[in-house]
Design goal:
- The chain is an alpha+beta fold.
- It has a domain of 116 residues: Mlu1-box Binding Protein, DNA-binding Domain (Roll).
- 56% of the residues lie in helices and 8% in strands.
- The model has no long low-confidence stretch (mean pLDDT 78).
Length: 167
C-alpha cells in the first residue's frame, strides 16, 4: 500500500465554501490517485448517493475566487466548473471508488475533518472563557484581554500584489 498522506496535509486542502467545509474534486482525485475525470464519472454513475448536502458544483464566481486564492492557471485547465464534496460526500466516495486506496485515504480525510472540528471547538471554548474572565475582572486587564482576543482571531487576508506588466 502506498504511503498515506498526513491529516495535516489533508487539512490544508479543506476549504470553506457556502459556509461548509469541503474538498475540491481535483484535490480528492490526487489523494485517491485517480484522474479527476474518472472520479467525477463514478459520482455521475452513482448520482443518487450524492445529494446537494454531500456535493455541489461551484458557481463561476466561486471557481474564479478559488482560482485566485490558490493561484491556478486558466489555460490548460478544466472545461467545466469544479465539484466540491462535504465530509459526508467524501465518506460516500470510498463506496463508489471501491478501492483499498480509497478506503485508507477516506479514513485519513475523516480524521482531518474531525481534527479541524476539534480545533474550532477548542478555540470557541477558549474565547468564551476569556470573555467570562473579562467580565469578572476590572478594567486594568482590558488591554491584556484585547491582545488575547486578537491572537485567537484568524489573520485577515491581505490582497496580494500583482507582479508583472499591465497593459
Amino acid at each position: 500500500m502506498a504511503e498515506l498522506i498526513s491529516t495535516e496535509v489533508i487539512a490544508t486542502r479543506i476549504l470553506i465554501v457556502r459556509g461548509k467545509r469541503v474538498m475540491l474534486d481535483s484535490d480528492l482525485a490526487v489523494l485517491y490517485e485517480v484522474e479527476t475525470k474518472r472520479l467525477n464519472e463514478q459520482v455521475a454513475r452513482n448520482r443518487k448517493r450524492f445529494p446537494k448536502d454531500f456535493m455541489f458544483q461551484l458557481s463561476r464566481e466561486e471557481a474564479d475566487s478559488l482560482r485566485s486564492q490558490i493561484a491556478t492557471s486558466k489555460r490548460g485547465g478544466r472545461r467545466y466548473l469544479p465539484f466540491v464534496f462535504t465530509q459526508e460526500g467524501v465518506a460516500m466516495l470510498s463506496s463508489v471508488l471501491n478501492s483499498e486506496r480509497a478506503i485508507m485515504v477516506n479514513i485519513q480525510i475523516m480524521r482531518a475533518f474531525t481534527q479541524l472540528r476539534r480545533m474550532l471547538l477548542t478555540n470557541r471554548t477558549l474565547k468564551r472563557k476569556i470573555e467570562e474572565m473579562e467580565k469578572k475582572y476590572d478594567k486594568q486587564f482590558t488591554i491584556v484581554f484585547q491582545a488575547i482576543k486578537q491572537l485567537l482571531e484568524p489573520p485577515l487576508r491581505k490582497e496580494k500584489r500583482v507582479i508583472g506588466f499591465h497593459i
